[in-house]
Amino acid sequence: MISINTNSASSMAAYNLSSTNVNLQKSLNRLSSGSRINSSLDDAGGLAVSMKLSASIRRTDAASANVGNAMAFLQTQDGVLKNADKIVSRLSELTQLATDVTKSTDDLDLYQTEAVELIEQLDLMVDEAFNGISLFGTSTLTVVTSQDGTQTVDVSDTANDFDTNIATALNGLDISSVTGATAEITTVTDAIQALATLRAENGAQQSRLSFAADMLAINKVNLESANSRIADVDVASESSQLARFNILQQAGTAMLAQANMSQQSVLRLLV
Question: Which position among 87, 88, 182, 205 has the lowest Cβ density within 10 Å, counted as fewest Cβ atoms?
């Protein structure tokens, strides 16, 4: 059937060309952006999953930063404890020296003077802080070590003993006499043991946070990999599609022109 009002071949060719142009534009968008999903129209379900994975990745980064800050807190705390170790070791040495029966009263007074000064410095260390947070406070710090908030690590609580078992315990240390120095040896050795325990517990907390940081790093890699499989474009495959749609566009344009010219045969019947 030959008609003037309707050119079905031209309409179909125009429809096919339009579809090809839409697919070609999508392919260009994917290759230029590097993303398979550039709008919810591309993959509604995939977009929803990708959004949640992207949010999890950002939370993982934030959790890693928090764990890093907690590590810095513990490292600063250990630095103070390390200096305290030097002071307590010197006090231990002074106490032992003061048990020497050949020392005069003046000699013992000098030992006592140094001990008092060292203990005052030890008392000042109790007030050390990290970004305004007391290194040896009375409250436990709970560090979130997972992006979903379900895993935590408590730090700092063991260091509360620094004030009670070390600084305060050494206040009033009296080595101004041989008898007094002999009696204080136990006090100093107990303080050394308490300090050693604190540093060991600090190291254990640092070790645990280190593993937590590694776990966050691994989780981030896995989340990024999962998100990539959903959202990232397969360049090789999409390049092939681009070439295909380019050829279809050229063929569709040529066929539309042919379909439009087919109506000219009507003129021959009318002449």
Answer: 182
pLDDT tens across the length of the chain (271 residues): 566 666 777 788 888 888 888 888 888 888 888 888 888 888 899 999 999 999 999 999 999 999 999 999 999 999 999 999 999 999 999 999 999 999 999 999 999 999 999 999 999 998 899 998 888 877 788 999 999 999 999 887 666 678 777 888 899 899 999 999 999 999 999 999 999 999 999 999 999 999 999 999 999 999 999 999 998 888 888 888 888 888 888 887 887 777 777 666 666 666 6
pTM of the model: 0.80
Same domain, 13 and 88: no
* 63 and 176 part of one domain: yes
Q: What CA–CA distance (Å, rounded) separates 85 from 166? A: 10
Two tokens, residue 110:
């000098």
Tell me 140's DSSP state. Answer: P
C-alpha dist (Å) from residue 73 to 33, 101, 116, 202: 41, 45, 29, 10
- On whether both 227 and 237 belong to a single domain, the answer is no
With respect to residue 173, please indicate whether it lies within any of the assigned structural domains.
yes
Q: What is the CATH number of the domain that holds 114?
A: 1.20.1330.10
Domain range for 76 is 52-231
The answer as to whether 46 is a domain residue is no
68/126 same-domain check: yes
Three-state SS at 104 = coil
